[in-house]
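Entry 14. Ran structure prediction on the chain below.
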Amino acid sequence: MRKFLLSAEKLFTIASLMIYSGTPLDPLMTNGFTIKEGDRLIARLLFTLTYIVSLFLIGLRWKKVAYVFNRDKLIWVLLGVCAISSFWSLNSDITIRRVVGLSGTMLFGLYFASRYTLKEQLKLCAYMLGISAFMCILFVLLIPQYGVGTAGDPTAWRGIYPQKNLLGKRFVLSGAIFFFLAMTNRENRWVLWLGYVTSGLLVLLSKSTTSLGNFIIITVAFLIYYRILHLKYKVMIPAVTFISTLGIALYTFVISEADTILGSVGKDTTLTGRSELWPAVLQMVAKRPWLGYGYGAFWDNSSESSIVIQTVQWDAPNAHNGFLDLWLALGLLGVLVFVIGFVINLLRAIYLIRWNQTSENLWLLVYFTYIILSNLTETTLLEQNSLEWILYVSTILSSKLSTRANL
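Output, structure tokens:
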């Protein structure tokens, strides 16, 4: 009976991860994401179900969860800033609803960290992403009108996701997870390498130049982090500076030349509009720099977001930069809380890698690299119902657990 319950719990976890990542139900229920009105009702119900079940499972292990909860208080301070931003929000009702969703998302992240070790978390993510990759390929082969074609490029793959950039972003993360597991595990390595190669192929077929650049940089970063961070400080600091400069140069080259690499025809639109969008967003940031416009309120049909949209002449759903969106939502207050927590954990990861050769500490650094790269042109920071934010919470909390009890 106990084995059955444990297996059921793992199935719930994998299913929940897929709900947060993107399920095959989404395109099927929305006729390939063409139905806009009322198409998110079932999705909201599924998210709510994960919140409720997670809360129930947390209640069964509340002592362990309380211990994990206290490992990093700044994460919860950031959630508190989101909550109190309702007092100065453009729309307090929207902010409150979004905070409820963010709380449920972080609640699942807390459950994930308290229930599974970091490697177990990554293996469960790998199972989910393997299923997602299979479903993407299946959609392209069997339902190409859903799986292929996006704005500006009718041949780019999008699989079970609304657009090619989301497919690319998802399998950059997938590639990082499979690569890490393949390099740090001895069992079933060929399966893990297959997952990594498949992730890379899906990124290529998505024709997302940003995702291709991120995929390459994260792979290279994993290979060099461990060696460099074990060097003496006199050698490490120049080496890190050189590698960072080289990485930025490589990133710029891939972004500018990826159309040639992919052999695509015409101009890629991945970064189109950002050059006009970001200055317009910065102008709005300057109007309320200290506290922002309230969590989740700026882009939700507000008069302020309409000014940006009129300026750029396209319907921007967000700032396409996680750091700018954080500043818009919570002002400098929220940015400082996030940056302080991020830097503390980053430095801690570097310190632990130098003195403790465990793969968990290396994953924290790799994932932080992914978070920075993915938020340069997209938004995943502090996002409700986001797989990236769940893993941010669970990775930080898990990395601070010195011992793990068998539950």
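Residues 2-399 form one domain. Will compare against last week's run tomorrow.
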